[in-house]
């Protein structure tokens, strides 16, 4: 067997940046993790806030209960 000293596993992990697909250091020193940079984080958050977070403000109609109409014809 060859006695090649294997380096200990690094504390920091390398993950894929969800925005640009590049390498991102997943460590406490990276404040933008799992993103690689502040720009990528802002881009992703902007897309999420503008597109995915559009909740239609539609209050439930009063007196409208589903399944109550067919209960009389039982
Ligand atoms: Zn990135």
Automatic annotation (TrEMBL):
Source species taxonomy: Bacteria, Pseudomonadati, Pseudomonadota, Betaproteobacteria, Burkholderiales
**Residues given in the record as Zn(2+) binding sites:** 17, 20, 36, 40
Per UniProt, subunit arrangement is: Interacts with GyrB.
The record, for SUPFAM superfamilies, names: Glucocorticoid receptor-like (DNA-binding domain) (SSF57716)
- Name its co-factor(s): Zn(2+)
Cited InterPro entries:
DNA_gyrase_inhibitor_YacG, Znf_NHR/GATA
Annotated stretches, region: Disordered? 52-74
User: Can you say what this protein is called?
Assistant: DNA gyrase inhibitor YacG
